[in-house]
């Protein structure tokens, strides 16, 4: 495993997204023992960068990590997120990045994670009701108190990134970025490069789609992120299958799996990028972390970069409204 720096924070080149162990997919939360084995195997393989959020569950994903990382806390760069739960009463899925809400959120996350500090603490979505300067100021206080080491944003647009960074350095922006979701390349990426802010692509496997393993959407249950998602519905889904086939063809040529190709393409986009593929299975964490060693040719990278755009938006309308691009 190689390691890179997101600004001052050293992380494994490939991290592990823990969300799906508890939340977001049809079979999330069904096998805690395998999830814990997956986390431990990831650490053995040199993965140090583990991603969660208070909204995952809510709460149960952080609790799972607290149990799994007992006695191993020092081996990981632990990232969590605030701002998707309003602790003032409105509850989950209500944006609140006010300083008072962040204070409450961090205490809960620290307790659940069983730690006295979070290495990278992201605002999960930009809160239109709280100036980003106030949010950044609140995180800066947590940094000064030692409860947080570094500040991150998620799905923030260029202006918000600049304003936040002017108050407290932003270490990383975590946003959706993969072969079929490239919207941040034009406006966000140049700002990250200019300000020396790392990029953490979430859903680097396109919520599993780019692995080629999803050929039908029939089994997605309500509550699965992909259920009713425009890219995983009807004609869009059928058209997108061709994209997955292209990735599969390049994988066959490269002697790799499609998941590894999707990750290797991301790694080739810069050494300031640390994707966090999500899995709750040991054999897949082994497969995904091995992408670090896959070298694609210039021609293969070109082909992948020239794939046609995905059919359909990344999110349903409600989810889309929370994105700032
Ligand atoms: N900031 C945000 O707003 C945000 C949003 C979404 C996610 N995230 C973070 O990003 C992480 C990753 O995103 P994600 O989980 O949404 O999407 P992803 O990493 O693109 O894909 C995960 C899905 O792919 C499957 N999968 C993983 N490796 C595979 C392989 N080698 N072959 C076949 N299938 C494979 C997983 O199933 P199994 O688990 O069954 O293997 C899961 O269903 C999350 O865990 C979370 O920490 C952040």
TrEMBL record:
Keywords on record: Oxidoreductase
Ranges of compositional bias, category Basic and acidic residues: 314-325
Top-level taxon in the UniProt lineage: Bacteria
Keyword match Oxidoreductase: yes
Residues annotated as domain NADP-dependent oxidoreductase: 13-306
GO molecular function terms listed in the Swiss-Prot or TrEMBL record: oxidoreductase activity
E.C. no: 1.1.1.-
Location of region: Disordered: 304-325
Protein name: Aldo/keto reductase
Origin species: Streptomyces ochraceiscleroticus
